[in-house]
Design brief:
Blueprint (H helix, E strand, L loop, with lengths): L3 E6 L4 H13 L4 E6 L3 H10 L7 H7 L2 E4 L6 H8 L8 E4 L2 H5 L10 E8 L10 H4 L11 E8 L2 H10 L21 E2 L5 E5 L7
Parallel strand pairs: 1-2, 1-3, 3-4, 4-5, 6-8
Antiparallel strand pairs: 5-6, 7-8
Length: about 200
């Protein structure tokens, strides 16, 4: 099976580190991953502490079928305006901040697919037995972490590539009768929680 080509932009940040570490170490047979980072201390951590290679952004975007945009929320508008025009046609572009899509801060293109994934912390779909896990409001430190996904615009079949990055065992269970609401399919995500996948969320996200 051909690997999915992935670029993680902001691979030295908190979410970028978690996501890229999981893709590289847990699923090397499924994903071919390029890491992009420009902040010098983060580049050093990737190369010296994690033993991984940092790829120039233009090279990574030319390579990737799916781009995970793990940059700080405050930089989504600025950096998406710079990087989205560099995408090859047909690329799936996944952001981690739904507010940016609602606020229309994300640069879009008609020939690419855009989606959003966001963790729920504390867990929304799974009961946490331990108090520490129940009170985990930062995400993924004390307990299970859920994730919700939605397609912003584009090819919903291609968006399933992004869903594969957030799950580890099977295709998302999409019910065509959901009418844009989250499906009832439960699968495992990269943070060992539950993933709910929606082909098209309320209000188009």
């Amino acid at each position: 099976m051909e690997k999915i080509k992935v670029a993680v932009i902001g691979a030295g940040g908190k979410m970028g580190t978690r996501t890229s570490n999981n893709l590289v170490t847990k699923f090397p047979d499924k994903f071919d991953v390029k890491l992009v980072e420009t902040f010098p201390p983060a580049v050093e951590r990737i190369e010296k502490e994690r033993g991984l290679k940092v790829t120039p952004v233009d090279e990574a975007l030319a390579f990737a079928d799916v781009v995970i945009f793990a940059v700080p929320d405050t930089l989504i508008k600025k950096l998406s305006a710079e990087y989205v025009p560099m995408l090859k046609p047909g690329t799936v572009f996944l952001i981690l901040d739904p507010a940016a899509a609602v606020a229309k801060e994300l640069t879009l293109r008609d020939d690419c697919t855009f989606g959003v994934a966001h963790p729920c912390h504390p867990s929304y779909f799974k009961w946490q037995k331990e108090e520490e896990a129940y009170q985990d409001r930062f995400g993924g430190e004390g307990g299970h972490q859920d994730i919700v996904m939605s397609c912003i615009q584009g090819d919903e079949e291609k968006f399933k590539l992004a869903a594969k990055i957030c799950i580890s065992n099977k295709e998302p269970n999409v019910n065509p009768k959901d009418n844009g609401k989250m499906s009832l399919g439960h699968v495992r995500d990269l943070h060992s929680g539950t993933s709910h996948y929606s082909p098209r969320g309320p209000g188009g996200i």
